Amino acid sequence: MDSLGVFASVLPEIILTVSGLALLMAAAFSGDRIAGLVSWLSVAALVVAGLALAHPAVHAGGEIFDGLYRADAFSAFAKAMIFGAAAVSIVVAPRFFERQGGLRGEYPVLIVFSSIGMAMMVSATDLLTLYVGLELQSLAAYVLASFMRRDVRSAEAGLKYFVLGALASGILLYGMSLLYGFAGSTSFAGIAQAMGGEMSTGLMFGLVFVLAGLAFKISAVPFHMWTPDVYEGAPTPVTAFFASAPKVAALALTTRVAISAFGPGGIAWQQIVIFLALASIVLGAVAAINQSNIKRLLAYSSINNVGFALIGLAAGTAEGVAALMSYLFIYIVMTAGSFVCVLQMKDKDGNPVETIASLSGLSQTRPGLAAAFAIFMFSLAGIPPLFGFWAKFLVFDAAVGAGMTALAAIGIAASVIGAYYYLRVVKTIYFDPPAEGYAAERSMVDYGIIVVCAAVIVFGYLLNPALDQASAAAAASLF
């Protein structure tokens, strides 16, 4: 491929890099007075980068940079979800930060740079590219978690995320060094070739450590310990970001590593993924039952949903990967809608309220917001005919098709446990005596996002032909 084709293949990353650097300089020299403009320009950059995904070189460019990076349909689909979730996280932030002295220009810039790292992650075909992308995303995320410097909870969240993230990064690096030492290559193709023969003990340990490091990034059990505290302590727009875009990037990266690098290892990595899936589903469901904070509940919900998504990966088939990608799309919509609803929870003085008890009788004071909450909670619980049911059906069907009927059966049984705490929120909203009402909001942007997400959840089956085609193309590019 000529130089022009190479640069065309990384066009989204180039757009975001140039935009991020320009906006960083603008924010540095002009201060927070242009934070609003920087936010909208960041959203515009993400939209333009998303449109660039339609370029043939971006979604079908193949391997470039001597095999360090791959532009294919899988990465393009993942990037589209990442850029969309990142844009939503920027758009909903200004009104939240009004009470904390206003939005700072660094916030949207950090999300743009984090998006560049995530774009590199999903296109990585070498351990070196994987690590660079992962760290670029993580370094921005550490700052975002502690963005409200005068808030003790935010500072604590940032510190916990940084310390545990550094530990996970060390585990991942150790696994990568073992893979390189015993496979003799850092490329996924080289590792797959080594896995095709008799698997040595060193390769096995390398595989385990790498999957452990990636499990931290997707907050899968038993590497989930940071998630509830960070989700609760971080500013709500940041929590919405953490629950969506980085989750998609990490799951897509884990999928590419498992299929492209560890594929010939077969049962070795599948056993680990099955354990991560079942443990995440069960713990995410059980631990959420007694939560009184809505953000902590959604943190355990994200752990639970990661478990369901991993069932698709555990199948190890093209159908399983396609189901996982469809699941991620639906999960992004449910999560974005849920967190924008949480952003509407403010007392009369405009201070954020996070207790589930404050939702009591919401159907009488804010019927529209109550209906949106109910739609998202029912969908997260996987109750038909909402789109969340279809997401779970796809991964269970893929597991059965791969001969993993027992895995699907356990997942279905565990989903009943998870339905309890979602239904408890709906019960609080519709059947408990009304609590003090929330402050009236006048944000057409927030309302628009809620309406669009709710419409997708209710009428999403109309999108099935396009979604199935995109997911199948993404999965086919890995096999």
Automatic annotation (TrEMBL):
Residues 124-418 form the NADH:quinone oxidoreductase/Mrp antiporter transmembrane domain. Its EC number is 7.1.1.-. It is found in: Cell membrane; Endomembrane system; Membrane. The keyword Membrane applies. Keywords: Cell membrane, Membrane, NAD, Quinone, Translocase, Transmembrane, Transmembrane helix, Transport, Ubiquinone. Its main location: membrane. It is a multi-pass membrane protein. HAMAP family: NDH1_NuoN_1. This is NADH-quinone oxidoreductase subunit N.
